[in-house]
Amino acid sequence: MTQFLFLSLLSLAVVSCRNNGQSTKQAQSEEVVKAAPKVKAEVKVNLKEIIIDNNREPVKPDFSVLEMTNENDVLTVIVRYSGGCEEHDFNAYFSGGWAKSLPPQAAITLEHLNPNNDACRSLVKDTLRFKMKPLQYSGGNEVVVKWSTNPEIQTNYSYGK
After folding, report:
1. C-alpha 56 chain-centroid distance
2. What is d(CA 81, CA 85) in angstroms, rounded to the nearest whole number?
């Protein structure tokens, strides 16, 4: 009787673990491929406004700007900061004044918001996106956008062509 019970349990275990001769990796990858068509290809990006404020005093940043690019009237800024346990946010500011040059130059400042006082020390790399229309210079079709803390980080913004 004990042998019959043992053989029955063993048979049940073998049958329930059967995956039609595929390795576990094969079975998993097929499930991923089958699930992929259900995923929507459309990704919504949260675009923030650049705030125009000519009274804003510059603050020493607690983050680094790694890169600044633009495409389709969207400024993309890649930043790195310390944190990783809580949500962080950023605001972009423009004074409303352009440096006299051809093309005109607009310096932006970024404000790092850490409302939850994230004290974690991981280095986080984040991508920020802002609407660039407030940076358009009246009577022109191109502006050089610079980060005020390090003017070497810049991007040329062309519009209205």
Report:
1. 25
2. 12
Domain check: are 59 and 137 in the same one? Answer: yes
Compare 155 and 15 and report the one with higher pLDDT.
155
Q: Longest Cα pair distance anywhere in the chain, in angstroms?
A: 96
CB count in 10 Å sphere of residue 94: 22
Verify that 20 and 66 share a domain, yes or no: no
In a domain? residue 43: no
pLDDT digits (tens, 9 = 90+) for 87-109: 999 999 999 999 999 999 999 99
Contact between residue 119 and residue 88 where contact means Cβ atoms under 8 Å apart: no
**How far does Cα 70 stand from its chain's mean position?**
14
pTM: 0.70
Residue 124 lies in a domain: yes
